[in-house]
Amino acid sequence: MTRLLFLLFCFLAFSQEEKRIVSEKAEEGLKKGVLTEIIPFNQKVFSNEEVSKSLIGTDFLIINGSGNYFNILTKNGYFLGNIKTKKFNFFSYKAPLPSEFLNIQTSTTTSLQALVPLTVSSDSQRAQFNQRRVYLLYPGGGILYEFFNGSVNRIDSSFAQRNQYAGAFFSYNNQLYLLGGYGFWKTKSILTKFNFNSGDWEYIKTSGVPPKGVSNPVFTIKNNSLYLFDFFERPLNQAPIKNPNLYSLNMETLTWERGGLINPSYISENNTSGDRFFNLKGKVIISKMESPKIFEIDLDNNKIKRYNDNVLLYKSGGKSIVKNDIIISSIRNTSNNTNSITYYDLSDLDKSVISEEYFIRGSISFVNYLIGGGIALIVILILLWASNDRASKSYFVSSNSLFNSLNQINLAPEEVKVMLFFTKKEFVPNKEILALFEEKGKTRDFAIKRKNKTIESINKRFSRVFGKNIILKEKDELDSRLTNYVLNNKINLFKK
């Protein structure tokens, strides 16, 4: 009996030690920002279907994670999902949840879906900011949580401001920003930055001409600037108005610039709650909320593509994320209030293009179009001038005349022979032309006189009709004793 008790004690001690070692390794991996594949052996592995059935209503939130992993936060704990295997593990939070986190409230919901998540993986003044921390902004601004290493912690010293609902929550150069938003019956275009040291939100002054308000924008960071579009303005106590322009805020100079009018085929007034959008490989993928339409915005090339409609993506709701070219979302079953975790592969999106158009046209674009149009007009005029100039310089020799598109002179047979020389080359040695006039039994002087008279006659008539001589005489460059006849450089001569 004693021996049996001893063996049981050893087994329990070994089990606890093994559990401790495995847990410590997993925790160590998390602290390094790289989730290891080591999961405590007493944790059950859940299928995608099992997790889906457990998600009741809207009180959960899908957020990004390290590597192939993502998380689904609930108020009882969080699921750790692997995008490759589509398997999950469930963990309890390592610390009690903040009281505000347990009762998130807006005017329409009290669920975790109301939080605005932002995943950051770059260095910061805050220690270990590079370890795939996920920041969770309380609706309306103010309160800020941080999900990291299995805990949700409140990191602000603020309060529920309720002043910037549906603003643009983004990071730039290791800082967190909140732009615009709706509150107290109007939209704003103010820029605030979170101070990690004090835990407060600070007002940041900008220059230029900002939009009158920003609510539910589509936005992205490119080339040190925040670009935003497809957002609403809501003047005091008035209905929301869709702003038709693209705006940019240079984050280095903090200067606003209006970039132009958005293609009206994309803009819709129907959806006032905003569209879901994802940044993917330098472009913005947008899933319209009022229809199954999917768009891709390419700001670099000023193009907008529309892809085949995706009904399943359209029916999915709540916050969605993109990981490894896959959208992870959820579709709610209204009959039993459960949800299905769904995956949408974007890698072959280009194969389903329906149309491609310009994205913006307007103020700045219009200037560019004017400049481009002016340049094009100048080019056309130059080409026309060149064409007309070439046409005016082009002359033709027929069997009995010399002419261009405007006029002509008649030629004698000997004159035709002379002019045909110049259809082949621009200068002709004197002796070649002289040979035309040499006759057996006649002196050389006779031939010279006939040659000179013929050329003089051609030039005289040509000058009277066209305003210039056609045949010129010059000394040979190699032997000044010799003479060459050359065609006027303002004339191109062709045989007809």
Structure write-up:
- With 496 residues, the chain is an alpha+beta fold.
- Among the domains are: 22-162, no CATH class; 393-495, Orthogonal Bundle (Arc Repressor Mutant, subunit A), CATH 1.10.10.10.
- The protein has 8 helices and 35 strands.
- The chain has a 5-stranded antiparallel sheet with strand order 1-5-4-3-2.
- A hairpin with a 4-residue loop joins strand 30 (401-403) and strand 31.
- It is elongated and about 125 Å long.
- The termini are far apart.
- Residues 9-42, 122-130, 363-367 and 384-391 have low confidence and may be disordered.
Fold blueprint:
Elements lengths: L1 H30 L13 E3 H7 L6 E4 L4 E5 L4 E5 L4 E5 L7 H4 L13 E5 L12 E5 L6 E5 L2 E4 L13 E5 L2 E9 L2 E9 L6 E4 L13 E5 L2 E5 L2 E2 L7 E2 L2 E6 L4 E8 L13 E5 L2 E5 L6 E5 L4 E5 L3 H5 L1 E7 L2 E8 L4 E8 L7 E6 L1 E2 L1 H31 E4 L3 E3 L4 E3 L2 H12 L2 E3 H5 L9 H23 L4 E5 L7 E5 L4 E4 L1
Parallel strand pairs: 29-35
Antiparallel strand pairs: 1-5, 2-3, 3-4, 4-5, 6-7, 7-8, 8-9, 10-11, 11-12, 12-13, 14-15, 15-18, 16-17, 18-19, 19-28, 20-21, 21-22, 22-23, 23-27, 24-25, 25-26, 29-30, 30-31, 32-34, 33-34
Can I get a quick summary?
It contains 8 helices and 35 strands.
Query: Between the first and last Cα atoms, what is the distance in angstroms?
Result: 125 Å
Give the overall pLDDT as a whole number.
80
Q: So how many helices? A: 8
Helical content band: 10-25%
Low-confidence stretches: 9-42, 122-130, 363-367, 384-391
Q: Please state the overall shape, judged from the principal axes of the Cα atoms.
A: elongated
Largest sheet: number of strands, sense, barrel closure: 5 strands, antiparallel
Structural class: alpha+beta
Percentage of residues in strands: 35-45%
Radius of gyration: 40 Å
Q: Numbering strands along the chain, what is their spatial order in the largest sheet?
A: 1-5-4-3-2
